[in-house]
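Regression test attached.
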Amino acid sequence: MTAQIIDGKAVAAAVRNDVKEEVTKLRAQGFVPGLATVLVGARPDSVSYVTSKRQACAELGIESYHNELPENISQDELLALINKLSADSKVHGILVQLPLPKHINEELILGAVDINKDVDGFHPINVGKLGMKGREPLFAPCTPAGVIELLDRIGAKISGSRAVVLGRSNIVGLPASLLLLGRDATVTICHSRTKDIAAVCREADIIVAAIGKPKFVTAEMVKPGAYVIDVGVNGIPVLNPDGTPAISEKTGKPKQKLVGDVDFDAVKEVAAAITPVPGGVGPMTIAMLMKNTLRGAKHAFGLL
Amino acid sequence: MTAQIIDGKAVAAAVRNDVKEEVTKLRAQGFVPGLATVLVGARPDSVSYVTSKRQACAELGIESYHNELPENISQDELLALINKLSADSKVHGILVQLPLPKHINEELILGAVDINKDVDGFHPINVGKLGMKGREPLFAPCTPAGVIELLDRIGAKISGSRAVVLGRSNIVGLPASLLLLGRDATVTICHSRTKDIAAVCREADIIVAAIGKPKFVTAEMVKPGAYVIDVGVNGIPVLNPDGTPAISEKTGKPKQKLVGDVDFDAVKEVAAAITPVPGGVGPMTIAMLMKNTLRGAKHAFGLL
């Protein structure tokens, strides 16, 4: 059996379309959702991420308020900006692009974001509420929320399933585990200290791989019929037919390609459904950020 | 093999003794740790818990400031008291005895406790930090912290072990899972929707049972050599030799006895170590509350 290939681009487009429709209605009533983006320094990857997020805002009718700060900005100055944005009624979401420069205390900065504008869902209070019974954070972190959205859209039954999450990062592994738990899965969280991770994975109806190791999850680790969601994004060298690294004619550097944490070609012969890399979870992150920003705006407008 | 019976009373006494020694030293330097207790209404169990906590304070040299409020106190009045205690520099821990009356929003009240005085560790920000990498809450919830303390004192190896937590309550199951994860266990969280919970338990090197079902964990569910920590406290009827319920001569009511979530007599023949009920985890809760109060005081005094 070959697995269903989950088309993250299509699901993300559908989510973005839903957001766009709601934003259009809000704007017709005079409500304008707004996202503040904060970029410190000029890391090429960070610049690229922020640009994509702002483009998404523009497409969906969300105002974006961009704040570009020099690499050497002081912590106090950055904090003052976050406080200003937290108080700004036009702003319904604050996105601080990570990582921040080393001289800035990330915990302090993220902790200063108004929890009602914490569209990344990284504030500890939102993480705590994610796990607690009877508490509901306003925002779930974007990538894990995208994982759940993908599972829902393909009709995966989460309640009562055994879910194994590989990785316990603040950004993916931990919140994905808490979201799955909140949806009544029996969740096992694996990490670098886990013994016989293959045996643990084989018990899973749902595997969420966010461990940052190329092709780590092999076909032997997957129960036939499992759902496999690959959050990994790893660059590996492209090889020539003779096994030597391929060199880009344009840059003169070794060519790279992106692969996930899952051995896609092999696992797709075992799983019921699987996300590709790229084009699986990746596109969901920005889509869920837009959804969170809309949610923040509706909350601010008293429409939630 | 018969399991080591973990003497929670002895461990709790040792923890209390450590706290007492530190408090004595602090007082000699003019620093007086203080715990505010807040009791709303007069539920007999709540009265009894608060009394025990205040007695422990008295024994260890911690000042306790008791606040007894009528059942019908308004939410605003209670909130005002919490705010007052949060601002009071003599108070280093605030204990709001749960449950609160139904007309009061528990989330709102607990959320108002200064996180630097949240000795119960129930504030979502402390729960979030418990799970997050690189974050450290000032306080871990008392009962789960007691579970870890017991495992540590008997020399159980937590890192790399497979831990199964039965139950996902805010007070025990969830924070116990996060603490075990933080100690590098591979953690599985089970609950009422878990399928084949027996098979899941059999994988565990450490079982933490906090599911509220008398004698739920049977010998067949326990891997030989596992550590079994029983957080359950369930009242069951005492039976006469002929199987009829025994009646108390004093009260005329059916006699009850306390049992845990684990079938102690059977499981002790399989496990490496096991906590009894009563006398296992129970005494740890107040001991850890005292430890947390000391910690809050040291933090306030700048001694942490």
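Expected vs. actual: identical. Residues 4 and 221 of chain A are 18 Å apart (CA to CA).
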